[in-house]
């Protein structure tokens, strides 16, 4: 089965895990710190804080900003549920914003502006499918309205420019992301203001129970005891994950280049083999090419296409069912309607995209998709 996404793990990861067992120090040690430093360097950030997941990282950033009941946070609905859940975790209210256009499924600036109120404190930008939002326009928006920007960069590890839009950016190393530690995440903060340092210091403490020093620092004599100065969490990363993360990070640029090349090939062959498909992001835009969404014609039975592709050994999926339509969110926010997000979600289909694929895989997917679409044209009234 050609999978939509897959983790790439091998001998180097095995050796890195074995080395942690040899050393015997298994959590929050030198590897976690080295992973933070290396990740910050790759993203031109002064420093980074490793956490147990992107969801945990988003929660910590919102907590560090002091957001809570009565505060509103603008979020897209065309995202994974964690983006909105993190807002609810601090007791604030997510305000769902539509996408810009069907061919630009990033959070709409004009809809965000329309939904700003006196209570709007922050906006979470999601780099959907790995594509970067317009930095200058969002920074101008944030400045004009006194809104803090946070990047949910779960799809965009290794992308130049990521982390420079918001006051903080949070990455995911879940198994299907561009690099993985099985579970894990990373927070970077802007370094052009004291604010970035203060943010990282705060999330570093919040990550580990609000303690003023860690076990490693006490062992190495850098600290003798600790105090607890805030209500913290246990969102730590361990040495096994950091060891894998260091190996994966070194390979990320090569993998992202491969994703870019595969995406370009998809665009070429889909344009010729499947002319009734619409491809989002037709204009060039920086991207980590995390997923390859296509937009099916409105009349097509998507499940039928997915079944036909599966029968040919090709997995597909949908990114995403809109968050505001899930039962839990519908019950709390029944009045929300986002016409473009809903139409995009009805017609979107994600095709296999990962660095273990070659050009022939792309051609095979395009041909299978063309056949499935042709079959539906034959059985449908014109
Ligand atoms: C995967 C993902 C998350 C959650 O990441 P975890 O590390 O699994 O918590 C958040 N936002 C988006 C957009 C994602 O794709």
Automatic annotation (TrEMBL):
Q: Name one GO molecular function term.
A: pyridoxal phosphate binding
N6-(pyridoxal phosphate)lysine modification sites? Answer: 177
Q: Does the keyword Transferase apply?
A: yes
Query: In terms of domain of life, where is this protein from?
Result: Bacteria
Spell out the catalytic residues: 177
Which key words tag this protein in UniProt? Aminotransferase, Plasmid, Pyridoxal phosphate, Transferase
Name the SUPFAM superfamilies for this protein. PLP-dependent transferases
- Please give the biological process terms from Gene Ontology that the record holds: polysaccharide biosynthetic process
Q: Does the keyword Transferase apply?
A: yes
Among the Pfam families in the record, one is DegT_DnrJ_EryC1
Which family does the record assign?
Belongs to the DegT/DnrJ/EryC1 family.
* Name of the molecule in the record: Aminotransferase DegT
Please give the organism: Azospirillum ramasamyi
